[in-house]
Amino acid sequence: MLSFPGGKFESIDTDTDEDVIKTAVKREVLEEVGLDLIDPVKYVTSSFFQDTKTNQNVVNVVYYCKLEKTKVEVKANPREVPEYYWLTVDEILEKENCPPWLIKYLKGIKEIIHEQ
Q1: C-alpha–C-alpha distance, residues 34 and 27, integer Å
Q2: 46 has which bridge partners?
Q3: Structure pTM?
Q4: Are 33 and 85 in contact (CB under 8 A)?
Q5: Dihedral sign, CA of 21, 77, 68, 100?
Q6: What domains sit in the chain, N to C, each tagged with a CATH number?
Q7: Which of 3, 56, 62, 88 is the one with CA 20 to 30 A from 109?
């Protein structure tokens, strides 16, 4: 199944002057795929659901980052990312293993891309 890098807030995410969500986004991307995002991250959408495996309430917040200044050298963490693909939005939407929630998020990202 295709998915974006993601994770949970950690106490370290409050140690900067930046927005805690943006700090967590940047940290998770760095931990999972090795990209140290220096370009701005932009809010796309959010949703709330209950994790069926843990029964925990989850707030899913999606951000987008257009890579212009960030060094694009993926170093995927094998514990968290067993396989990765560098795809365009349209290429992802064409994949049969693209889950419905990812399609929803990508449509929001496409709107941001067209606004730029």
Answers
A1: 9
A2: 61
A3: 0.84
A4: no
A5: negative
A6: 11-115 (3.90.79.10)
A7: 56
